[in-house]
Each structure stands twice: as structure tokens, then as C-alpha cells.
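testing teh design pipeline on a random one, pls ignore if ur not involved
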């Protein structure tokens, strides 16, 4: 009885506090300008404009760049369109490119700032971001290097359990970090993300896909991880850009009639798959190339769509992704080839690592020919 009584008293006290707060908030809204009331409504509803993708696509750089760079430019447009977007990084804004320009820093003296300086506290950052999402007034983001996501695992898991609408931006997403070496080169992190139920993982191939990825993340309603590159990557051909279907998780980049080979790629390795396909075509082979930035979005598609992208009739399948190959078996099948990295990397320029580990058009082409006996 004592415990029951104590809990009842606490509940009654908290209800009284909530009622008082709501009374003050109602009075505040009533005395506010129409502009402030509109902003408050957008915050409380966490509104995202219906044309958000079109707005974000206007921010895509014309030149070849890293997806962390294009992501940083796209974020500025997103923040202007979505007042609820707020967040920060674990002391890595200059590298992750996630600082919201002109929107101030959140400090004891400035509670309107939308940039939060978390310091080198990845777990604390993730949990604080979860709290912001639980408040119901923010779509929070947090960012760091992908390899440091290990420190955030409990926060990622809790975000998924609670289906919190937040965005985790992990840059430097592969061994192509380069000279920092194995301690900073993620290998198993993508597999970890994909193993957590309820997380949507998106690894865009280039700047236009990155705009689509940000639009998907803002509209998701649950936790999303964006995996972005440190190194520059080529943009998709102009004829492909209007056909980008990242919201479906995977889509056809190019396809020959009666294709005999199917090459898949995610992130920066999509360009390797595309280059390898051209080499294989020059040798008389018919190829389909598929961009697959998100398993989770793909699995939500109707069976008919999934079959149209990855038809069962084609068993000669290969995937290219610079990380652990764990899990790709479900898409390449028992007769397929996984071109991944199931060991730690090495210190060196990323171009050298790409060549040594076979992540070039020539390397992929040669490995595909050898594996399938072409």
C-alpha cells in the first residue's frame, strides 16, 4: 500500500505540473505573433513540406564531390524547410559537414540555436538525440565517423525499439578513409546497422542519391542512418538522374535485353559496378546494373517490384560493397559473388587501397569473369 500511495502521489503531482505547463503554453501561444504561432505549429507537427525532394535536388553540386560534402549542402536547404531539424556532431562538424550555417549554437545563453556541440561523447549524443525525438517537437540528427558508431550502439537500438524519428549521419563510410588506417576504416558497421530491427539504412552512391536519401529520412517517421563518403564520387549520368528511385531501396541503372549478368552496388562502389558493366559489354556480355542503397526500403516494396529489379531467372549475380559481405547472400543467392572486405583495411591513399582490394572497374570485371568462368 505504501508503494501504491507514493506512486499515486507522484502521478498526481506530475499531472498538476503538466496542467500548469499547458496553461502557460496556451497563454504564450495566444499572445504570440502569427509568424511565431505558425513556427510553433510546424515544430509540434514536425512538418516536412510535400515538395521537400524538389527543394533538396536544387542544392546538389554540379561537380563531382564526396557525399558528405553534398550532404552538407543539402542539409542547409533541409534546415530552412524543416524548422524541427536540429542536431550536431561528436566534435567533428568540419569533417562530417553537418553544421547548420547561420542558425546559431544551442547554449545556456541561446536556447534558440539549432546546432548542438556534443563533444567527443558519441553515446551521450545518441541518447540526447533520442530524448529530443521523444519530446515530439524535433527531428534530431547526430553525426560522427561511421567507425565510431560502435560507441552509439545502445542509442541506435533504443531509437529502433521506440521507432523514434531521427537521423544518424555517419560519414567516412569505408576503407576509403585512407591513411588513418584500420582503426578508422569501418568494415563490420554496415552489417551491424542492418542487423538492428527497425532501422532504415541508406548508403547513397552520389550527390543526387544523397538528396533523395535526405528526403526519405525527413519523411520516414522512424530512425534512419545515412552512410556518406569521405572521398569524391562521380555523379550519375544525366539520363539516369530523373529515374532515381532510392525510395524503393533498389532500382535499375542500366540493362541490356536478355542480360546474363546482374551487378549490384551501393554507395561509392556503384560506380565500380557501372564501370565493370561497360567493360563486360565491350567483351560481348549482356549486363544489368542495379543501385541498391537500402535493403530495408527494398524489402518494403511489393514482390512484383522486387522481382522486376532482381529477377529469379538471372542467377549470375555479383554485388560490390567496400565492407563486410555478411548478409548479401540473400540478394546474390547461392551461386552469386560478393565482392566485399571481410578483413581489416590498411593505411594508404584511398586510390591505392581501391586498386589493391579490387574496387575498380577493372578489378570488378576481372573478378566477375573469373568467378563465372567468362
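output:
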Amino acid at each position: 500500500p505504501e508503494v501504491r500511495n507514493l506512486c499515486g502521489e507522484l502521478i498526481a503531482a506530475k499531472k498538476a505540473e503538466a496542467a500548469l505547463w499547458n496553461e502557460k503554453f496556451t497563454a504564450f501561444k495566444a499572445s504570440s505573433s502569427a509568424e511565431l504561432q505558425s513556427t510553433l505549429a510546424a515544430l509540434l507537427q514536425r512538418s516536412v513540406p510535400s515538395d521537400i525532394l524538389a527543394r533538396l535536388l536544387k542544392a546538389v553540386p554540379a561537380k563531382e564531390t564526396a557525399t558528405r560534402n553534398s550532404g552538407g549542402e543539402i542539409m542547409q536547404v533541409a534546415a530552412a524547410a524543416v524548422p524541427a531539424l536540429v542536431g550536431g556532431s561528436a566534435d567533428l562538424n568540419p569533417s562530417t559537414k553537418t553544421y547548420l550555417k547561420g542558425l546559431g549554437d544551442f547554449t545556456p545563453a541561446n536556447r534558440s540555436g539549432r546546432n548542438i556541440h556534443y563533444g567527443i561523447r558519441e553515446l551521450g549524443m545518441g541518447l540526447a538525440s533520442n530524448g529530443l525525438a521523444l519530446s515530439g517537437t524535433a527531428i534530431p540528427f547526430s553525426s560522427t565517423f561511421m567507425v565510431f558508431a560502435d560507441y552509439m550502439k545502445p542509442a541506435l537500438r533504443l531509437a529502433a525499439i521506440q521507432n523514434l524519428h531521427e537521423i544518424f549521419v555517419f560519414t567516412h563510410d569505408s576503407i576509403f578513409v585512407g591513411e588513418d588506417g584500420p582503426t578508422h576504416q569501418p568494415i563490420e558497421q554496415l552489417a551491424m546497422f542492418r542487423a538492428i530491427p527497425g532501422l532504415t539504412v541508406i548508403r547513397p552512391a552520389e550527390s543526387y542519391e544523397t538528396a533523395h536519401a535526405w528526403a526519405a529520412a525527413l519523411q520516414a517517421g522512424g530512425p534512419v542512418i545515412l552512410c556518406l563518403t569521405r572521398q569524391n564520387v562521380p555523379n550519375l549520368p544525366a539520363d539516369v538522374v530523373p529515374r532515381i528511385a532510392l525510395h524503393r531501396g533498389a532500382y535499375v541503372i542500366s540493362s541490356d535485353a536478355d542480360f546474363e549478368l546482374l551487378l549490384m552496388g551501393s554507395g561509392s562502389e556503384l560506380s565500380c559496378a557501372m564501370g565493370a558493366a561497360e567493360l563486360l559489354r565491350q567483351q560481348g556480355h549482356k549486363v544489368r546494373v542495379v543501385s541498391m542503397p537500402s535493403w530495408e526500403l527494398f524489402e518494403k516494396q511489393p514482390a512484383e517490384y522486387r522481382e522486376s529489379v532482381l529477377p529469379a531467372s538471372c542467377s549470375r549475380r555479383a554485388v560490390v560493397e567496400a565492407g563486410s559481405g555478411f548478409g548479401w547472400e540473400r540478394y546474390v543467392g547461392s551461386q552469386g559473388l560478393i565482392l566485399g572486405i571481410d578483413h581489416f583495411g590498411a593505411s594508404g591513399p584511398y586510390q591505392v587501397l581501391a586498386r589493391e582490394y579490387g574496387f575498380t572497374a577493372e578489378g570488378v570485371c576481372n573478378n566477375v569473369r573469373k568467378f563465372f568462368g567468362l
